[in-house]
């Protein structure tokens, strides 16, 4: 009895344990499926993120951004195939198939430094010029710039300095020193020198390096000691020549004024003499008329006055005369003025007869 009971209890317990084990197995299977599902979703999510990252990287590698003032050269295995100059976005194949090179198209300025050059009249001067240049937005010139200086603006500037030095030597040889340095601004031809220099530089720079010269100017011009002394001497001679011309012109003007004054004086004197002659002749006529009227009205008074006039003319302060007193005109000294009321003495009348 005891054994059977124990066995029955054991068997029951065994069956109960088996039932519990089956329940735990079903519940664990459901959790496993959830974990597998989450694992798949996580794996697919990582694939999607990686794909998006790779796609973005590929897209960014294919995008070309062209900024204002720049050009972009697209190369395929080092060979330029496209030149982009318009600002904006373009496309290319990703590296290493295609790559890009940025080219600066902005304006640059390069100075030549002081250059010792000669003029046409054999004098030396020191000239410093500046050059404003840039790479033009044209595909052929951009490719030429890349081939010539490998997209290095400093190398291009150095080559332009050499061009400016040689061009200055050739260009200034066709100008005299007075054409470049002069006290008279109208004779200075610096603008012509700059124009010829630009023509020579622009042709060489565009042909050799693919760059365009926008402006050339003379920023400094000075003289060595020997040339300075020669220039001062020339300026002094020019000033002395001008002064001599002014003095000669003044002397000519003074001589002309004096000549005109003498001529006017002669004309005035001749006219005055003519007027005086006319007045004198007129006065003589009037005097003769007056004398005639006086003689006709009072003959004795007329004779007296004429006798006194004659005495006044021929007799001076130191004159001694011994004359007859009964002769005219000295007779009046003895007779005195005639008096119509009182008859003259008989001796005087007899003497008058």
TrEMBL record:
Compartment(s) of residence: Membrane
Band domain span: 61-235
UniProt KW keywords: Hydrolase, Membrane, Protease, Transmembrane, Transmembrane helix
Region entry Disordered, spans: 1-35
Membrane topology: Single-pass membrane protein
Comp. bias (Basic and acidic residues): 17-35
Gene Ontology biological-process annotations: proteolysis
SUPFAM superfamilies to which the protein is assigned, alphabetical: Band 7/SPFH domain
GO molecular function: peptidase activity
GO cellular component: membrane
Coiled-coil region: none
Primary localization: membrane
InterPro entries named among the record's database cross-references: Band_7 (IPR001107), Band_7/SPFH_dom_sf (IPR036013), HflC (IPR010200)
Compositionally biased intervals (Basic residues): 1-16
Oxidoreductase as UniProt keyword: no
Segments passing through the bilayer: 44-66
Function description: HflC and HflK could regulate a protease.
Family: Belongs to the band 7/mec-2 family. HflC subfamily.
Protein name from the UniProt record: Protein HflC
Organism whose genome encodes this protein: Bradyrhizobium commune
